Amino acid sequence: MGSRNKETLGRRKANFERRLEERLSSLIKRGLESPGIEKDALVKKLRANIRAINDRLKAIAKNEERTEELAKIKAEKAALPPLLKDQSAGKDKPSKEASEEGTEKKKKKEKEKGQGQEKEQKRGEEKKQERKKEKRREQEKEE
Question: Of 40, 49, 54, 123, which is the most buried if we count CB atoms within 10 A?
Fold first, then answer.
């Protein structure tokens, strides 16, 4: 049931609907009433298949709409005069000043990060020295 073709899904849906109608008529001929028909496993399965196909058809329709919208947008962009294209393209590109500011900020962050790492290393070394001192004191007390 992984088909994306509308015609194929339409045929499958028609087939399931036909089979469902046949099943319902046969159950009615047997004398089953509404609650018994609703509990029938084959009826449930056929209705589930029909719902699944309807969901797929909705998804296909949604994709087609989206494709049409994108095609319209693309056609509108292609229809713009060349001058307008350049102006709209210029807005999207950041200026050199902004990019320079960004690089300065990056350098500053890297520098601060490096300083932070140095501080952490110093703290780690200080802790090691404190531990050594504590061990020496304990050893001295034991003696």
Answer: 49
